[in-house]
Please model this.
Amino acid sequence: MPLPDAPPLPDLAALDPSPGELRAQAASAVDHVVSFLSSVSEQPAQGDLEDVEAFCRGLREPRPEEGSPLDDLLSFLFRDAIPRAFNPAGPGYMAFIPGGGLFPAALADFVADATNRYTGVWNAAPALVQLEANALDWLRDWMGFPAGTRGLFTTGGSMANLNAILCARERHLGAEIRPGVLYASREVHHSVLKAAKLAGVMADRVRAIPVDGSYRMRPDALREAIAADRRAGLRPFLVVSTAGTTNTGAVDPLEEVGSLCAAEGLWHHVDGAYGAFFHACGELRPLLRGLSRADSLTLDPHKGLFLPYGTGALLVADGAALRAAHATGDHPAYLPHLPDADEFYDPASHGPDLSRGFPGLRVWLTVKLLGAARLEAAIAEKRRLAVKAAAEVAALPGVVMDAPPQLSLFAFHLSWPGATVEEEDRATEELIRRVVARGRVMLSGCRTGGRFLARVCILSFRTRQDRVDEAVRHLAGESAGILAGRI
Model:
């Protein structure tokens, strides 16, 4: 009697799901995301970080030899892993610099990843690269940069700052890097210092310029530092201003610094990762006067344009300088020849990456779907909310407002008669701890100017008047309780 045929062995190398499986997997992922977003306003603002070290130790595992059901994996992520994190997607996240993560950008990532088009060079996806070029041009127009501007989408402000420093180094120093000197305020973001090092500008060639009482770079001190370095035989080449510092939201005097750089023949880079998008609102542009004159500008659409993390950008007013910083001379033999650089944008000619995703689609789809007017209205609202909240917090007993909002961030500390700085620091830290413990609002602090400050930064598109009012109420109640026990 013949033996029955054995069932066919599974084709382990077949990785593409059927159309039905694709729809089921996509539907499952969408269901989890929609459920998450529908409750995001009620989720703890800081997330659940209790015993997180033990939880993370328990996650360690060898690589799986067999696959797992998607529903099981998604349930684990949304039930166990995602809640154990800060919640920048929620309306109560006013710590650090929020963003929020607009949903159209998630759709853009889904489309970009599923279609998997290569956008490193123009020839491989001309129409898609043109859409990315359009998105960069929209950023250029919002910032008032000239027509010859070229840009680059990056993973964030850190990479944008690095590329800006490379441009300035190539333009002003060439191969003689060691004598070059970079200037920034003492409040500059630490990514600038890291980028300088990566670009070959060592720490002893970076000058920390003092700030004024509003935490803004002092042009007089900058001028003196430049003159001193010239007398010492060094080569000043770059000044980095900040349009919205992380600590206090300070905007350096961009117009004055830009004029000084023009007179001294220096490159002026503006780190606008936090604050530059306020320039998109016509009524707020005076707050950033001089930004449009910069040689280069760092932007973080994942902050001021409310997009998901991993969306940074750089604009360079002289597009040829950005191309020159990444030029190697000979054209790679295996790549097609590029189009006219004056007409068509080629990403790999303007940045370090050849292999890359399609980051510009996030910006393109979001702006096309929502329209510039709605985005500008949301940006302007954050400024109004911060100004109103700062006035109310400043009126609370015991609050000293160290940094009123120049944009949408303000910083303050608690004080009482006879208190030492150390006591005020502890009280201010305790205030943050108590407010965060309520679960509705997450704040953060910083140490600057010799003391600890509490910070409130309003920038998430989901942060509206009701949650800001709640934050003020929590600050009022907890500060009163702290002061009652100390005075």
